[in-house]
Amino acid sequence: MPEFRQNLATREWVIISRERAKRPEQFKVRTERPELPSHDGSCPFCPGNEDRTPEPSLVVPASGSWMTRVVPNRFAALDAGLSPERHRMGRYLFAEGYGIAEVVIESPRHDLSPATMRDRSVAQVLDCFAERYRAMAHRPAINLITIFRNHGPLAGTSLEHPHSQIIATPIVPPHVQDPINLARAYFNNEGRCVFCDMASEEGEVRVRIVEETESFLCFVPYAARSPFETRIYPKRHSASFWGTTPEERVELGGVLRRALGRLHGSLNNPDYNFIIRSAPIGDEDVRFYHWYIVIVPKVTTPAGFELGAGIYINITVPEECAAVLRDTEPVEVRESE
Ligand SMILES: [Zn+2]
Ligand SMILES: [Zn+2]
Questions:
Q1: Could you report the per-residue pLDDT of 122-141, keeping only the tens digit for each?
Q2: Which ligand is nearest to the CA of 197?
Q3: Quick one: which ligand is closest to 9's CA?
Q4: pLDDT over 80 at 315, yes or no
Q5: Termini Cα distance of the chain
Q6: Residue 20, pLDDT above cutoff 80
Q7: Catalytic residue flag (residue 264)
Q8: What whole-number distance in Å separates Cα of residue 157 and Cα of residue 55?
């Protein structure tokens, strides 16, 4: 029997299609990725080619070199030198493409990814996210900061060198604002944060939990849109990633590394996106919204019905995906001490 399931926060419906259901193992990537060298002289992000990126906004030094570099995105869709002011173009709204786009080069090693980095190095990348988030939040007219990672061509990157991105915009689009409005309505009605409620539910039923640590819950959501969608919620209520403590980021470094390492292990290093969602700037302390990380492996393609109705058909069962991830050892860490 196929079933509809509703995302409690967004009220979005998905179809869990048991008839068409594929065993989670069937999503394993079949083509082997080429083995990467630890250094590639033609890569703009590899050590020695620092002059091929703009002046960094943040460098975490290491003996004689660096551990993490944050640089303006040379191919950014947005430009910090423009005006955020909005105008009318006839009946339409128009604004210059003001915004900030930076690339976080996660490691000097060309062949690593957060799944194969040490927990400590992943935590350091998270520290860089937090520091740049803070700096961008203080810039005029910035209202939303999105942190994300594209892994592999299906996820939108052809650059192999491990990197993630931060984009700060004056615009808070409906895609972000509508769920926030729904979370506010839920809070007004129930008196509780809807994300805290989902974390409580997952913590009680446990069937979709991948890993639970002192401060974080890693799970496959009840109404997952696509196979192996995974979320990491902080247990402590907080509306913005900005509010994480250094200790929490150390713990999160391990949780995120293992979540990606389990995906890597069970699906043979699939392409994926992860996104860190936070409340808009100025709403860091609201009680109705909750920051989180969502990881989406690119193992299926949304088709006409998904685009037309906004109803995603998930051909895996979230509980089964969670069980597979739980039972998979994270791929081995390849970064030496
Ligand atoms: Zn490189
Ligand atoms: Zn909450």
A1: 999 999 999 999 999 999 89
A2: 2
A3: 2
A4: yes
A5: 51
A6: no
A7: no
A8: 22
Tell the burial category of 15 from Cβ atoms under 10 Å away from its Cβ (0-12, 13-18, 19+). Answer: buried
| pTM summary value | 0.97
111 C-alpha to center of ligand 1: Å? 7
Residue 232's φ and ψ, nearest 5 degrees, are -120, 115
What gap in Å lies between CA 294 and CA 272, rounded to an integer? 10
> Which candidate, 172, 173, 290, 175, places its Cα nearest to that of 241?
290
Q: How many Å lie between the centroid of ligand 2 and the Cα of residue 225?
A: 22
Residue 142 φ/ψ region, left for φ over 0, alpha for ψ in the -120 to 50 degree band, beta for the rest? beta
Distance CA 269, CA 59 (A): 28
Please give, one letter per residue, the 3-state secondary structure of 136-167: HHCCCCCCEEEEEEEECHHHCCCCCCCEEEEE
Catalytic residue among 110, 151, 161, 163: 163
Q: How do strand 13-16 and strand 312-314 relate by DSSP bridges? A: parallel
Q: Are 224 and 318 in contact (CB under 8 A)?
A: yes
Rounded to the nearest 5°, which phi and psi values hold at 165? -140, 155
**What is the CA(332)–ligand 2 centre distance, in A?**
33
Distance 250 CA to ligand 1 centre (A): 25
- Compute, in angstroms, the gap from residue 315 CA to the centroid of ligand 2: 29
- Which pLDDT tens digit goes with each residue over 172-220? 999 999 999 999 999 999 999 999 999 999 999 999 999 999 999 999 9
